[in-house]
């Protein structure tokens, strides 16, 4: 893989990234900040050495970077330039990372293929006729194409792990609350997380460690509670690994993914882990609950795009008409579908039947995950049902929702989850998902590093 060298000159890294990018044949980026990246790299090279100097960073375009457009993949925000920078980005920049540009995504993070971007789809660099996954498809593609070795994504129900899986890169969805969401365009706040994508577990973890922790600008960002969080085991020896047998045997799972899970279990066992079968909650119930809860939260979060405070405005003779025209012209079909659905499930008379019930399912799913994780340190599961589908292949929104069947449960439970690529099936990347108790990212990394080294 080409791309940016590490630890050396920041300017050399930026030039290498720009030449690897070329004219961006996969359309990974919505904006490339050539001049800004070169300027900042030159300044870094003249200053003291910083831990992330030489790291070129691609930022999903729903994370604010002061002075760069932040579209969230939406026409409504096509010209929105924030004056603030997301805390996660700011912390990487403070350690010497250089922002190369902003990457493509499904509008407001709502989608599984990056085909729902208002600015056209991203192609999968591993196979140009395939989707890169979504919603962080541009970030995954930027890493997979060898443009940069670090990209930020957001994961509400799978948007870091699923594109990482389709593009064959590492993706970490942190524990909910482990990384500040200040500066993230909100989708479903009780689920939204910000996390890294990289070619290796070590690089993803270096970024996570730099970003994590409390932030005065996001009251939900926190350290793990003192004394009660999991401590990272020093070695794989004796690590208790549960294999999500029901999930791995699920009907419709591609044999290549099933085999990836089985091989990963063998690999961890031969490295000394104590591997056993575990039962996780039915993924279908989680999926159904998510597609009630996430649109409900989205309908509320997206109420702010009213033509007054942010982004585009389509004038009309009266205020209500202005709201209607602005939102109708600004939002794409998937976002409109979610806003309608969410508004319906929250409306008087239906709230208890839909939103309330989905909250009940979420609580049960979370309890079941936590109970399972009380008995093991790591759970090994599939990330996605199969290798990347073709662009344009999935036309029914429900087919796209089903791509999240294994990523959504851990999101509802607020757990950390790490996708590690382990090989190929049908010439396309496959890998596995590692799940842990809240704040067990270091434990996931320990197992993930064993898996990426390959072997039996
Ligand atoms: N595909 C899921 C959705 O559309 C998850 C997206 C995400 O994690 N942002 O909601």
Describe this structure as you would to a colleague:
The structure is a single chain. Helices cover 37% and strands 14% of the residues. The protein is an alpha/beta fold and 456 residues long. It has an eleven-stranded mixed beta sheet, with helices on both faces. A hairpin with a 2-residue loop joins strand 10 (417-425) and strand 11 (428-435). The structure holds glutamine. Glutamine binds next to loops.
Attribute tags:
single chain, 456 residues, alpha/beta
Explain the layout of strands and helices.
Elements: H1 10-21, E1 29-32, H2 34-46, E2 56-60, H3 87-94, E3 98-103, H4 137-144, E4 150-155, H5 161-167, E5 170-173, E6 193-198, H6 201-211, E7 240-244, H7 245-248, H8 255-270, E8 274-278, H9 283-301, H10 319-330, H11 333-345, H12 352-375, E9 378-381, H13 397-401, H14 408-412, E10 417-425, E11 428-435, H15 441-452
Parallel strand pairs: 2-3, 2-4, 7-8, 7-9
Antiparallel strand pairs: 1-3, 4-6, 5-6, 5-10, 9-11, 10-11
Helix pairs in contact: 1-2, 4-5, 9-11, 9-12
**Content-based structural category:** alpha/beta
Order of helices and strands: HEHEHEHEHEEHEHHEHHHHEHHEEH
What ligands does this structure carry?
glutamine
Rounded to an integer, what's the Rg over CA atoms? 21 Å
**What percent strand?**
5-15%
Figure out the total of helices: 15
Question: Which ranges are low-confidence, i.e. pLDDT below 50, for 5 or more consecutive residues?
Answer: 1-6
The first-to-last residue Cα distance is 24 Å
